[in-house]
Design a protein that fits this description.
mainly alpha; Arc Repressor Mutant, subunit A; Tetracycline Repressor, domain 2; 2 domains; 11 helices; 0% strand
């Protein structure tokens, strides 16, 4: 004989099982963009977890669940920055016909990007390292900056090999000079230099470039 099933039992059996855990109540991409702006403005060291949760509009448990710890969040921010605000260097190298044209475009676009009032001034990869006490974060940012210089050197070296630059051109030094200009323009922008002032620096930088 089957046990009697009451109406209450039937309701309990028909009730759907509740999914464990709470659904995410915030937009991850929006929160990540807010974190990017915070790190860009204040640097890695000066941006605390409490700052991030306040700016991102989420609690600490949600931050850790969605992004990991502060360093993991910052690493993701740096990747996003490189694919968006910082992508102008790679675009110039890929699209311009010569290394000289790519560098000239890079410096011109750096002047515009670093002084754009729509976001913090300067370059996140340069500024976020200020007063940083985390060796891992310092290494991450240093590798990013050095990778940019290496990409410039590779393009300059290719042009020199193809005769687009005169014999005796030193690709490594020329690339490092360009890297120093980009990093210096970033700091100048943080210190209040205008787009026109940075463009004037770019013109001087290009005046010393060798011509093929």
């Amino acid at each position: 004989m089957h046990p009697m099933v009451t109406s209450e039992d039937a309701k309990a059996q028909a009730k759907p099982t509740r999914t464990r855990g709470r659904p995410r109540s915030f937009d991850r991409a929006t929160a990540l963009e807010k974190a990017l702006m915070a790190f860009w403005e204040h640097g890695y060291e000066a941006t605390s977890v409490s700052d991030l949760t306040r700016i991102m509009g989420i609690g600490a448990p949600s931050l850790y669940a969605a992004f990991g710890d502060k360093r993991s969040l910052f690493e993701e921010v740096v990747r996003v920055y490189g694919d968006t605000h910082g992508a102008f260097v790679d675009r110039a190298l890929a699209e311009e016909p010569t290394a000289r044209a790519a560098v000239e475009r890079t410096l011109r676009e750096a002047a515009a990007e670093y002084t754009d009032p729509a976001h913090p001034y300067g370059c996140l990869v340069v500024h976020a390292a200020t007063n940083c006490t985390s060796p891992e974060v310092e290494q991450l940012l240093r590798e990013r900056r050095n990778a940019g210089i290496a990409a410039l050197e590779s393009r300059i070296r290719a042009d020199a090999a193809e005769g687009r630059l005169p014999a005796g051109t030193d690709p490594a030094t020329l690339a490092r000079h360009t890297g120093a200009m980009i990093q210096g323009m970033s700091q100048q922008a943080r210190d209040g230099a205008s787009r026109a002032e940075l463009e004037a620096l770019a013109e001087i930088a290009m005046a010393i470039w060798p011509r093929g």
